[in-house]
Design a protein that fits this description.
The protein contains seven helices and 13 strands. With 230 residues, the protein is of the alpha/beta class. It has a seven-stranded mixed sheet. The structure holds zinc ion (ZN).
């Protein structure tokens, strides 16, 4: 292509958005968010938000066919993809149509029965998160992968059981129904349960892709990919 053609392509393409999950292309994503509404965030076709598209971009090429996928609080945007790559697909939630009612802190699944566990933005809602992490480790098969996302506020987890006021929780933990704000030291909590975590990040991706597909959002730029420690 000529330099002029490149410039034309750049002029047309620079301001477009694209969703890597469903293939939607358009001028802008939709506005999204409860506590703090933000523009240019949600895919108008599949409803994905930044963190869904980021995890998909970081992991879709790495995850092959799965024997059994446990999808915790399944996000509609990712459900079709995860279901499609899994021989057995187990979507769980406490009480939501289209899912199996199951508590992450007391899974009724056999030991080592899941090749993939997908748990995004769930642990920050659970008071006994160590119990939930232990359950994830228990059901994860040797060689399996647990994908965990949580909002990350800094290096160290901020947690105080005395903070129960929703407004105070919103101020400290970013949302009224969050019970802590994790730090990157989540990796230590995972390790204590026998999960060895490596951290993938938006920084691993090309900047132009991050901008076009809107993959970045403050506090949501990291994905913990865990395996059972031997
Ligand atoms: Zn989409």
């Amino acid at each position: 292509m000529t330099r002029g053609g490149d410039r034309l392509k750049a002029a047309i393409g620079a301001d477009r958005r694209a969703c890597p999950i469903c293939g939607w292309v358009g001028l802008r994503f939709s506005a999204y968010g409860r506590a703090q509404r933000r523009g240019d965030a949600r895919c108008p076709r599949c409803s994905s938000a930044e963190r869904h598209r980021l995890a998909y971009r970081l992991l879709a090429a790495r995850l092959g066919a799965q024997a059994c996928t446990l999808h915790v609080a399944p996000e509609p945007a990712l459900r079709g993809w995860l279901e499609g790559i899994s021989r057995r697909y187990v979507p769980i939630d406490l009480d939501r149509p289209g899912t199996i009612a199951m508590d992450l802190t007391a899974l009724t699944l056999a030991d080592a029965s899941c090749s993939l566990v997908w748990c995004s933005h769930v642990l920050e809602h659970i008071p006994d998160d160590r119990r939930a992490i232990a359950e994830i480790a228990r059901v994860l098969a040797p060689g399996g992968v647990a994908v965990i996302q949580v909002p990350i506020g800094g290096p160290t987890t901020l947690e105080d059981p005395a903070v129960v006021d929703p407004r105070e929780r919103a101020r400290l933990y970013w949302q009224e129904d969050h019970v802590r704000l994790y730090g990157l030291d989540l990796a230590e909590r995972l390790a204590a349960a026998g999960l060895a975590a490596s951290r993938l990040s938006v920084a691993d991706l090309e900047a132009s892709m991050v901008a076009r597909e809107r993959l970045s959002m403050p506090g949501c730029d990291d994905v913990f990919v865990c395996r059972r420690a031997l």
